[in-house]
Amino acid sequence: MPVAPFKTIQNLINGQFQAPIDGHYMDNYEPATGQVYALTPESNERDLQQAVAAAEQAFPAWANTAAEDKAKVLHRLADLIESNQDDLAKAETIDNGKPITLAKNVDIYRAAANIRFFANALTQFSSESHAMEDVAINYTLRDPLGVVACISPWNLPLYLFTWKIAPALAAGNTVIAKPSEITPMTAYLFSELCVEAGLPAGVLNVLHGTGPSIGAPLTTHPKIKAISFTGGSSTGTAIKLATANQHKKLSLELGGKNPTLVFADCDFDRTVEQVARSAFANQGQICLCGSRIYIERSIYKKFLHALVKQVEQIKIGDPLLDDTQFGALVSKSHMQKVLSYITLAQQEGGQVLTGGQSISIAGRCKDGYFVQPTLISGLDNRCRTNQEEIFGPVCTLQPFDHDDEAVSYANDSAYGLAASIWSQDINRCHRIAKQLNTGIVWINCWLLRDLRTPFGGMKASGSGREGGLEALRFFTEPKNVCVQFNY
Ligand code: NAD
Fold first, then answer.
1. Distance 150 CA to ligand 1 centre (A)
2. Which of 235, 241, 291, 417 for mutating ligand 1's site (highest number of atoms within 8 Å of CB)?
């Protein structure tokens, strides 16, 4: 049975919580139990029209609100997230299936940090000026865009929702935000906190629903000036195509199939531990997880055995328990997709070294969506298992003989989001970091994040960058003003 009291989620439009106009709701499941525990609005264009009208009306006042006053509201919001950290973490775990310690220390912690970061950044944001010797001076104005859309996925629900909303609001835009229909709960709780923090009505509107019911109409609405989207690469393509003739600004953070490069001179024990973490954190459902593990041949067998041992120690269980390290996958259909890739890997000639099965956890989680962390060897780099994003707890291991081969395996992918390099030869690390076609490279670490750095990927992993000033630049329109001197 679910532990959460049954809830009916509402949209936030113009500062008011309201039911979807057409009254349609969808079941919301707790993945650890497989039980329905909430209802989510299936909003549509009628709800969207109201949200757009509210956001348009709120725009001039919010755009003209002094930077310090905008920052004050955002700091109050970050304070509220922090003071409600335990409740939000529990809600995230129930909604998503992730371990509660992860929800608390990563997801909810980062949601508050995102808001605070942009509350501070907006008071420091400046634009450029270019002098043309004695002839003229150019200065660049950076104005907010108007009404913008922020659309987020299910894997880091509140974390990624706030990562978009915070810079959009900080830059002076009004926002229509759509969380994933699979994990809507913390977005709803967050919208309550926005009202409590005193965010003026209409500045943030939160609409719940599916991609077809509300995501697609939101992105193509003519009043939406920019779309900040995180999700799958095929959805990113659909948004690009659907908006191609509308000339909107697009920031697309899409899928990944990230390589992990392990060299013989790595710090062995630490690398084993961190590679396991990078493969299976959040049940492998982080776009940055390293799912293709390449190991220098001279340590391949030793590393493989140590990694299998490490992975077999991961504690799988009820995600609401403090000592659980690995929880449920987000949905039944996602679990089936992940299991189908394990079958495919075996058909392609792979050997399952550990895991490979769905499991039932005794007690309240007996019907939950649990799949063991799975390591597979013996596959070719070009096979579907190594080329397609699985986005779950399934990783492959492959040996390589020299640096160039490691780089060519790593780059042999349609994706280009992130990579990690594990070696104590720092010159090699720098050289390889430069050669990798990914937007992010970690050397002897993984998921170490400084919010000032550009975040995003190349190729099918997206276009544009989030993070730091890049995000504030995305959510503003630069206008150059050139003034000729007359002296
Ligand atoms: P998804 O693309 O199915 O959905 C993402 C969001 O888009 C959801 O809110 C969904 O309702 C909405 N949506 C669906 N169709 C739409 C449409 N036609 N128009 C507008 N919105 C639409 O992705 P998902 O399954 O929720 O998330 C998993 C994917 O997200 C993986 O591919 C993962 O790699 C990627 N991801 C990327 C990053 C990154 O920063 N690059 C971070 C997290 C997740």
1. 11
2. 235
Rounded Cα–Cα distance for residues 249 and 11 (Å): 25
pLDDT band at 4, cuts 50/70/90?
low
Question: What does the mean pLDDT of the chain come to?
Answer: 97
Q: Is 253 a catalytic residue?
A: yes
Across 16-135, where does the E strand assignment appear?
16-18, 25-30, 35-41, 129-132
Do residues 219 and 227 touch, judged by C-beta distance below 8 A? yes
pTM: 0.97
Kindly give the distance from the C-alpha atom of residue 265 to the centroid of ligand 1, in angstroms, as a whole number: 38
Q: Which of 253, 389, 466, 470 is catalytic?
A: 253
Q: How far apart are CA 258 and CA 416, in angstroms?
A: 7
Residue 30 near ligand 1, beta carbon < 6 Å: no
**Does the pLDDT of residue 9 top 70, yes or no?**
yes
DSSP 200: P
**Is residue 235 lining ligand 1, measured as CB closer than 6 Å?**
yes
Average pLDDT over residues 155-160: 98
Kindly indicate the confidence band of residue 8, based on its pLDDT and cuts at 50, 70 and 90. Answer: very high
Rounded Cα gap, residues 15 and 332, in angstroms:
34
